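Severity: low
Component: inverse-folding endpoint
Summary: output formatting inconsistent between runs
Steps to reproduce: submit the following structure tokens with default settings.
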């Protein structure tokens, strides 16, 4: 594991975390993606007074990657303030699935504790459905 990427991704995801718009849940989340071109894309959760219209940090980071021309998530780091592991929600696991490859790394970090754990997508979303199924 290249710790240099994790450290850089923590710094970038923290910038997004600090800008999160989470007035309802008060649960800020930041995400940073390293794509196949070596570019980093960040996102935060953006909540809405109409609660279901809110979006996740991972979702917004993926949108930025795609609009910048990236197509493969090589690494994604998610950061939140929690003693527990804040892994991507089910919908975001599926969103990551669309742009993953077999080596994609999903890192989880805490704003207080720093880096916690790395998962593969296959661990978080086994037997997944993806573009190859269509
Ligand atoms: N949230 C994320 O942005 N990513 C996750 O992985 C878990 C949950 C957000 C959605 C909502 O704004 C808040 O955290 C509480 O669920």
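Observed output (run 2 of 3):
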């Amino acid at each position: 594991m290249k710790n240099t990427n994790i450290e850089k991704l923590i710094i970038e995801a923290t910038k997004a975390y600090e800008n999160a718009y989470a007035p309802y849940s008060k649960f800020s989340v930041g995400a940073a993606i390293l794509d196949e071109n070596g570019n980093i894309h960040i996102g935060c959760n953006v909540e809405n007074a109409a609660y279901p219209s809110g979006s996740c940090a991972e979702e917004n980071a993926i949108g930025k990657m795609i609009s910048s021309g990236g197509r493969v998530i090589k690494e994604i780091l998610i950061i939140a303030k929690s003693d527990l592991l804040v892994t991507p929600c089910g919908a975001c696991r599926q969103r990551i699935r669309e742009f993953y490859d077999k080596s994609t790394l999903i890192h989880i970090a805490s704003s207080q504790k720093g880096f916690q754990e790395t998962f593969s997508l296959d661990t978080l979303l086994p037997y997944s459905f993806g573009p190859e199924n269509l």
